[in-house]
Design brief:
By secondary structure, the chain is of the alpha+beta class. It has 7 helices and 6 strands; from the N terminus they run H-E-H-E-H-H-E-H-E-E-E-H-H.
Amino acid sequence: MKLTQGIQSLSESGLNIFLSTKVSSLPEDLFPFSDEQKNKTLCLIGNGGKALWEKLPHPLDTSTHPFDLYVENKMQEFAEKILEDKIEVLYPNYSYTLPLQKLGRALNLCTQSPIGLDIHSEFGLWFAFRGVFLTSKDIPDTALDKISSPCETCLEKPCLTTSDIARGRLCCPIKKEHQYLPAQIDFHQNALSLLKL
């Protein structure tokens, strides 16, 4: 019950994707987890659609990593209040290069779209991995059942009519109702352009 309430609280905070699994059940070649880490439970937190953007305090400053700071705070709250455990944050963590797409696919959260971005059955291309942590607490495995790609039902595939990933994402018709707000798209594009400098 406490775990369910904690996951609901995360969802109300805009982090509406939560999956957990034993590290030992993940593919061996996913990431070089240590023997100690293999005895823990991995939790993945994400957001789908506009919910997280609407919860963040605005205006946002790209230099302060507002998404990361917000998610880190929510993960620590979850760890203290719900798990009563000290967690090991793997993402966001700049000392790790965690293969998020491979992890999402291993948990059957998403599949690869024709433009390379991963696609979610409920949120389409409009979702993001926001946090990954390890806990010593025993949490039920919530990895999803194997899913088929929503792209298989798309006959037009307008995403392939452009060589630009951002434009391809915008013209995808799958779950278009979850498309980020223009201000959020602009924020992410500006943040990416700063990384390229």
